[in-house]
Amino acid sequence: MSIADGVDPNVRDRLTAGIMRVFAWVVLLFVLMPLVVICAMAFTSGEFLVFPPEGVSLRWFGELTSWLDAIRNSVVVAIPAALIATTVGGTAAYSLDRHDYRFGRALAAAATVPIMLPPVIVGVMFMTFFIAIGISGNIWNLIIAHSIFLTPFPFILISQGLADLDQSYEEAARNLGASQLRTVRTITFPLVRANVIAGFLFAFILSLNEYIIAWLLSGFSIQTVPIQIFTSLRYSYSPVIAVISLLFIIVTFVGLTIADYLAGGLWE
Amino acid sequence: MSRVVLEGITKRYPGDVEAVSGVSLVVDDGEFVTLVGPSGCGKTTTLRTIAGFEQPTEGFVGINNNRVNTVPPDKRDIGMVFQDFALFPHKTVAQNIGYGLQVRGYDSDRIDDRVNEMLELVELPKTRDRMPDQLSGGQQQRIALARAVAPEPDVLLLDEPLASLDKKLRETMQVELRRIQRKLDITTILVTHNQKEALTMSDRIVVMNDGDFEQIGAPEDVYSNPATPFVANFVGTANIFSGTVSAIEDGLATVDCGQAVMKSGDTEDVALGDSVSAVFRPEHLSVDTRKTAADGSGDGSTVFDGTVAVKRYTGDQIEYHVNTGTGDSVIAVERVDETNAGEDDDIQLRLSATDCLLLAQ
Amino acid sequence: MSTEEPTLGESIIENDIWPRTKYLIVSYPAAVLALFFVLPLLLLVVVSTFENIEGGFFQPAFTFENYVRFFGSDLFQGRMIYTLRVAGLTTASCLVIGYPLAYYIASLDSELWRRVYLSIIISSLFLTFIIRAFAWQVLLSSDSIVPTVASSLGILEEPVALVPSYMALVVGMVYVFLPFMVLTLYTSIREVDDSLQEASRSLGARPLTTFRNVTLPLTKGGIVSGSMLVFVLSLGVYVLPRILGNPPQWTLAVLIGNQVGVEGNIPYGATISIVLLLVVGAILAVGWYLLGGERRASI
Q1: Contact between A171 and B82 using a beta-carbon 8 Å cutoff
Q2: Is B72–C17 a contact, with Cβ atoms under 8 angstroms apart?
Q3: Which residue of A101, A181, B361, C250 sits 20 to 30 Å from the alpha carbon of B199, by its own alpha carbon?
Q4: Which residues of chain C have a CB within 8 Å of the CB of B69?
């Protein structure tokens, strides 16, 4: 007999539920806290990155001009990277869904594994590769590295979309006279378009946010936003960092919410 | 001219699984042929081979005397209605029906006219701008049909088109489909597992089992003269007793089936000592409660005495499952106002020798 | 049997392009992945046996001296054990904090509230590691709220920067990886049939017993998957230990980055990478086995 047994079961149950709820709220607060911190920092009127902030002002938003190059670099890398990832992942998904190949499993593995490797290792791997072939410090090194690293997202999303797609739609189209190509264009693609766009968005957002591969491959010649944040943290430590972080958070949140919506709410 | 020819079609899968085993068939211009058989007998595979979605391992598919094995499905000029209808979910009814015409490059006026024509044909003009998920099952089925015939194909294929409809709707659609087919005068091949459908709709039926065509013929012929026990059992209901021919005399064969002795007038190709299946239909048995039965076993009839184990009333008929002590029940059928025996009643069934068929086992 | 006598004429020979399309379409992704993934990966293995040249280059040599150096060095060996320890601590903490949270959310009746909680958790996932690390760094730096509060509560003598430190690192890691654990566990807990718990309860078992005997075993798959996920992620993360920890607290991943990006010793960096990959592979293999065993046992 423990103490708990002496208490009326109903009360005990409600108590447990109550404790759980408090616990949940504490943890979620913990999860949200940094967001709050960054928001607060972005609007501080003070000179330093401390929490709570000294006052409210928009002054640091004006300092964003020094970040324009970094933003441009990030976008210039992310768009092609996401495009390549989506085309590679998409064609791989389509091929594997429609046909059998002897090397089919190997292809599926190669399209899924990159995101499972520690990013720092992926960075080293590509660094080695590009030095070995004699092209280094080029922005395309980073674009290619990101493309491969992020291919699994569109691959998995589009594979899922194709798997859910009934084969008979395409057969009906072919039966009505549409060639393979035309069928893909008018029937298959429209029906998996949401997954394709979701895959692209995931890859784009993740590329924007990626630090270590970017640093290893181009950190000395090209600065993306995460790289500049890192550098700023070590050297200048001003609230501008919070501003750019906040902007990035908003972009990320919007982009991924759209992607998640399109992909049909993967979690439930 | 749009004849469809199957010449020795075989479809083998890895692992030596033969889905279709060397079947041949000629479907004439304008004919309505049904492939009927149980699940897994290969009928859908055969249909898909004609459509071009499967390649035969051996044999040829011919349309109008040309071999089309190497012609891809989009070039075969065949219309197909799929089992789940496969209406494009992202296109309206009109766009669905017009798809085949668009692919052929017709101008939009011509497409519009034809779409309207098709909607009139299937009697659904108001659904023009709806999306497929707004239609009922029966409506989807008709639109699928409209879509398939809009491009005026040579041949129409239907893969279990009525399978997902409820009974009442199915029967209505059976009539509709036949009406439309006659109107368009299009060569049609339908696949179904429902033998009643096959019997009511077709010019000829093909009974398929385990990859083979067991019998091809007009519905009446297949029903009254089944070629094998399987056909007898699958098309309509049949009583089947296996036995050995113990005597043949004056055009009357006697078959010893264990506890039942059958008399049959079907003496062609039958010899003493043959193993045969004696096959007879429930409606050919005359039903009497024993008290009123006359003793007429001298005229070559087979007589069964037994008790009613199960009585099934189907509205227009009564079906008796009679326990005659011979192992399997004998199934007999009569119209509602006749004998009207009850369960556990004694009953006598009489089968005339002409109604007893003998088939090789 | 059929009594038909068909006669067919000539074949219409149409271009049967099916076999060609099949290989045509796969050639693009296959070529890209082979050239830019498989090849670099193999190259990594090979380069780990190369000799280092100053300035971030290397020359071909088939030598194991890098591996010898790694396994022989106390520093690196100790560091590997340290890395595993940090990952283990992070995983355990995530499990202890995450399971009740996941359970609570999963047991909520209102779908709206479930989605709200899940959205909060998922959206924190979307923040880049760097930003999250940065936020914690701010929170824990000397003038900020956490040390200030702690000092006035008497936990600390005076407000001192809590970062970089081991504690900051672990807190940061748990913070960042908790959502992964929660979401994996949540999916698994949701799959447990309510009726099983009800059955247990109707047979007289108290909630705790029900939990121990019914829910927990049935969510073992989720526990294994979630733990593996967090463990592997913790092993490989670069940014968090780098920002939130002092050099003595840097994990293997940070060392790899250092060797390659700062010291310019690519072959050695490659060597450590291969070792880390092998460790990750081993963990995944164990996890796979455990999960497979789950499936085998449940039959």
Answers
A1: yes
A2: yes
A3: B361
A4: 11
